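Can anyone check this?
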Amino acid sequence: MKRLLAALALAAPAAFVGGAILAAAPIAGAEDKMADLGLAVGAKAPAIQVTTQAGAPATLADITGEKGVVLAFVRSADWCPFCKKQLEELNSISADLESRGYKLAALSYDSVDTLKGFADKKSLAYTLLSDPESKAIDAFDVRNKDAKGKRFEGIPHPIVFIIGADGVIKAKLFEEDYKVRPQPAAVLLAVDGLRAAG
């Protein structure tokens, strides 16, 4: 398995915990372009206008809990088996995140109908967000520009951002290999690390 790349807004030194690398900056030695994937930790998250699987308009403020939001970008809930698995696995920590003051949401370029069908079929307890023109994907600078073919136009690199209630990106987690996703336990560990840091 490729190593998890994580960046956290913590004052603590890098640590290796439960298979996840947690650091105050992008992982040293990760020299490929993935090391700088997406907006930086410490950056203000952009304003976004997306649509929920229920067809309601949503902004970042709408999907943010008391402490913040865990926002996962996925390629597709329609055709990507790795994304489907990740979306199901994230459902297992939705209530845990909620109890910590964070809402959970996942964003893709899929249509509202596709997301509603998937969420209903899998009984997801969190919000899926539709961004069919990839405007939010581009705003977070996670569009996969190497993906070729009409089907892949506008897909994001899979990544999980943890955004504080103040709108600042506090952490981001992603794997070097798109077939592997940050485990729910690693997401909870990152949230708990941020909470412990104050």
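Reply from J.R.: I decoded it. The domain at 4-197 is CATH 3.40.30.10 (Glutaredoxin).
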